[in-house]
Amino acid sequence: MILRSLQVNQNVDSAGHRVSAWEAIERSQRQLVGAKECWLITQPAHAALSAEIALKLKPEIFGAMDDATIRAIALHDSGWSASDANAIQASRSIGGKKSAGKSPGQILPFIAVEPKESLAACNTSIEMAEKVSALGGFLVSEHFRNIAIANREKAPALISNFVANEELRQKKLLPKIALSDAEIQRLVEGLRFCDLLSLYLCCGASESIEFPQKAGDKNIVLERTGNDQCSMSPFPLAAEEIFGISALRHPKLKEQSSARFFLKVTA
Fold first, then answer.
1. What is the CB neighbour count within 10 angstroms for residue 123?
2. Which of 85, 141, 162, 252 holds its CA 20 to 30 A away from the CA of 125?
3. Cα–Cα distance between 214 and 240 in angstroms, integer?
4. Domain total for the chain?
C-alpha cells in the first residue's frame, strides 16, 4: 500500500533545490509509518498509472513500447492485490460493530513490509507480466531484481535466493525476445521511470526531484511550480499531461471516504 498524508503541503519547493526521486518517495512513506489517519492508494492502482505514463512517453527516450509491454507495466505490482485488499477491509471495518473495543490494525506503507511478503508479491507480479509476454516478464523481473539487490541487507539469504531465481528466469526468457540487450535495457529504464513518477504522484511528495534516468545525456528533473503542477526537463512526454490517482481515506468518514489527486506535467 502507498500512503499519502492528509495534510496538503502548502510550502512547495520551487527554488531549484532537488532531491533524488526515491529519496522524496521514501521519506514520505517513512513519515507515515504508524499513521492513524492517511490516504490509501493501492499498488495495482499505482501500476495502472505507471502504464498510463508509459503510453505518453516519447518513444525516442526509452524505446517504443507495444501494447503487451504497456500491459505488463500495468501489472507490475499486481502481486500486491490480496495484501492491499486486506488492508482496505481492515480500514473500512474501523468504527463498525465488529471492531468495537478493538484497536485498529496498523496499515504499513510498502517500504515497511517484511521482505518475505514483499518478495512474494514481486514474484506474483512477475508471473502475471510473463503471462502477457516474454518481454514483459523480463522487464518486470529485472525491475525487481535490481530493487532486491539494493535491499539485500534486509534479508541476505532470502533476497539472494530471489535474485538467483530471477536470473534463471531471465535466461529462459531472453531467447524469446527479438531485441538487443541495449534495447531491452532502455525499456527497463522506461519502466523504472514510470514507476518512480507514479509513486511520486501517489505519495504526495512536494519536493523538486531528479530521476536516475536520462533523456539523451541529461538526467530528467522535475521542478515543482505549484501544489498540483510541475515542469520536467528534458521533457519526456509527447505532450503536456494531467495525471490523476484515486485514494481511499483511512479511516473512512461519513462525509468523506475517497478523493482524487492530480499532477499537471508541463515542459
1. 17
2. 252
3. 19
4. 1
